[in-house]
Design brief:
The chain is of the alpha/beta class and 240 residues long. It has a single domain (8-239), classed as Rossmann fold. The protein is 43% helix and 17% strand. It has helices spanning 17-26, 39-46, 60-67, 94-115, 141-160, 192-204, 214-224, 228-239; strands at 8-11, 31-36, 51-54, 73-78, 119-128, 165-171, 209-212. Helix 3 (60-67) runs parallel beside helix 4 (94-115). The chain starts with 7 loop residues before the first strand and ends with a helix.
Length: 240
């Protein structure tokens, strides 16, 4: 915490969707460093007294260079991610799979190496995964696998990191430019503002897991308890 009593918060994926919403929410009460690639959005955030860093998270050296001169921070929120679907499992798209895994998982690893040493004792690390990690869903071979990897990674960090608190975020469907591209029904869709408020409150309370909206995520968690032999035909019906 700085001399003025404000926490320093780093947010990746800050130029769109949940990340942009979190920047707006946290900048009302803390010092924010917004990270992203969209120069126009970053300039707009700077006009609102938000510090920014522009770099490509998928490039390891870019990540290390961006954070090299950074002082200690209180909260790191790793939110950046992309989503694409594999429409034809028979003709598996390995390039798409590699692209999603690299952007969502490997790039997160770059940020962890660069930023964990800079988080103050008693600080917080927040990783945004997805409720898609709860169950094997049609077309989500790449996206779901990447988010399942993030969830597992975060759980291990909760076990091993003793000097900071680690929070895992499992959002349901949130109305963002990312989900605007979806061509299927999205039950219990929530606004960015509501999603960010749920994350903000959960992080403030140092929750180990934040998941929302609960009427959706709890239902998925319940389905995840079923034997796979029961879930498989349901998943096939969803695909059709």
């Amino acid at each position: 915490m700085s001399s003025d009593g404000l926490k320093k918060v780093i947010i990746t994926g800050a130029t769109s969707g949940i990340g942009e919403g979190l920047v707006k929410r946290y900048s009302t009460c803390h010092k924010v460093i917004a990270c992203g690639r969209n120069q126009e959005k970053l300039v707009d955030l700077e006009s609102k007294n938000v510090e920014t860093l522009r770099f490509d998270m998928t490039e390891k050296q870019h990540v290390f260079d961006a954070f090299e001169d950074l002082d200690s921070v209180d909260i790191v929120i790793l939110n950046a991610g992309v989503c694409e679907y594999i429409d034809d499992a028979t003709n598996f798209d390995a390039s798409l799979f590699e692209r999603i895994i690299h952007a969502n998982v490997i790039a997160t690893g770059y940020c962890l190496e660069a930023l964990i040493p800079k988080i103050k004792p008693g600080g917080q690390l927040v990783i945004v995964s997805s409720s898609a990690s709860f169950l094997p869903l049609p077309r989500a071979q790449a996206y779901g696998a990447s988010k399942a990897a993030l969830s597992y990674l975060t759980r291990v960090m909760q076990v091993e990191l003793e000097h900071i608190d680690v929070t895992l975020v499992h959002p349901g469907f949130v109305e963002t430019p990312l989900t605007d591209k979806n061509d299927f029904p999205m039950p219990f869709l929530v606004s960015v503002e509501n999603a960010c408020e749920a994350i903000f409150i959960g992080v403030e309370n140092r929750k180990r897991e934040i998941h929302f909206p609960k009427r959706f995520t709890l239902l998925l968690k319940l389905f995840a308890l079923l034997p796979f032999s029961l879930w498989q035909p349901l998943a096939k019906r969803i695909k059709r």
